[in-house]
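hiii so my PI (J.) wants the whole complex modelled not just the main chain, which honestly fair. so below is everything: two entries, each one labled with what it is. i double checked the lines twice but i was tired so who knows lol
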Amino acid sequence: MRNSEIAQIFREIALYLEMQEERFKPRAYEKVAYALEALEEPVTEIYQRGGAKELRSIPGVGEAIAEKIEEIIKTGKLKYYDELRKKTPVDIRGLTAIEGVGPKSVKVLYEKLGITGVGELEQAARTGKIRGLPRFGEKMQQKILKGIEFLKQGGGRFPLGSVLPLIAEIEKRLRGLPDVEAVTVAGSVRRRKETIGDADFLAISSKPEGIMDYFISMPEVMHVHGKGMTKTMVKLKNAMDVDLRVVPKESFGAALCYFTGSKDHNVALRRIAQEKGLKLNEYGLFRGEKRIAGETEEEIYQALGLSYVPPELRENQGEVEAARKGELPALISYGDLRGDLQIQTAWTDGANSIEEMAGEAKRLGLEYIAITDHTKGLAMTGGSDEKKLLRQMEAIDKINQSLKGIKILKGAEVNINKDGTLDIKDEALKKLDVVGIAVHSHFNLPRKEMTERVTKAMRNPHADILFHPTGRVIQKREPYDVDMDAIIKTAKETGTVLEIDAYPDRLDLKDEHIRKAVEAGVKLVIDSDAHSVNHIRFLEFGVAQARRGWARKKDVINTRPLKDFLRCLKHP
DNA sequence: GCCGTTTTCGGCCCGACTGTTTTCAGTCG
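here's the output for the full assembly
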């Protein structure tokens, strides 16, 4: 059973327990669910290695939960979970996914109306049966119907790249309002998560009425969830929830910190505050009644004895401990990139010419790009064979002669065949400046076979960069089953560079893989995977991803000048 | 149910807004 499936069981257990008014157990199960999902290694492998004892090395797993994981792995089932479901046979996950419906509501709905699923709830709400239940009125009934409607439309999370432009636009407009001193976006947007559930804005204003009124009247707003003088919540027409909080100036840093999260990072900060006899909330850091910090995030971290933690690191993945010791990495910065090593053109499936792509890259301040059109294995894109590659190389030579201010490298995105060989002959690869290799077929090979296939390809002396190493497409396609530890090890051994593909629905490598690669001393590049001139700006999302993976400037070789960069490849 | 610069018990982050109330529970972040 996959880690995510086991995590799901524990998450449901947490909901059932919450329904039963348990105080602390739900949090324990939730925590474990989260830990399992964050785990790179399959939990079944951890178990095989050292049994239930080894399972307890997973944070949050103690005696009781280790036994439960063992039972799941051994039998594929969990009695405790089955009993909870039997006792209250409701679709707890489906029902609580409806906005405004939590475990306590599910309990009432089940006990009074026998509702067990979303369909029944919708039926009951339509026929007016919800209204009149304890703590349920007409408004809740409507809210539930709206929530169900939203879920049917596939509500949920948005890839950062698809909503960041709108968020930046709203931020700019709010900033321009009278009586507004400052506006910043917080939350997962500020942490630059791959996908975001909602956007949180923070503002300083001594007269909140105006900004709140404007906020609910923006043309993008579809629905107002709630409006107060410090907090207003709306849903936009694209179904994204957006919150706006107005805070006093002296609390801005505390609020920014609090609303940037992550939740787990905040809990860790609060614990430290507690240890020091202080209290941290969104209004500041307090000793008794006295506020000792709060206007800026920097002063809060300082007062807690921590170095400043960049938002991208705030996931409670060791950054608090590192900040305490002053050992946070000097992260790569936005704007550090000098090159882009994966660019497709109209020679295959791109929309623009080589000249147009180079022109845009130059305009964005890049010093070099590699043209990496697909190769013949990917027939649907009109992938190049050796002959076509040669023609393209000649074309690039010509363009380079007339082009000033940017250098075009000759490259290709070469297919890794099912058996780990490449679909372009070595004699042709030898002539290229940059050889990217990638999996574009047979995605469903077993883990062992897929790992052997990719590592074999990486051993090719001409294979410089492994493009989008896991092949995932966010919200569309699972990564193929490959042992990333083995990939990272092979990258180190062979000098193969691993790519961070910055395309917003790829973001491949993931943050935790980046971190492992960095720790192993593997070289990285950040590429846009641009298929049109509009895509080159995606590099920014790759930098964000690299930062969330604790990568420093020196780990990412396309931060270097062209000559240095080329020296990092296998065949400079 | 977990965990330990308060270790084998006694804690476990904190506050805003809504709806349905008449003092607060539930939900959310």
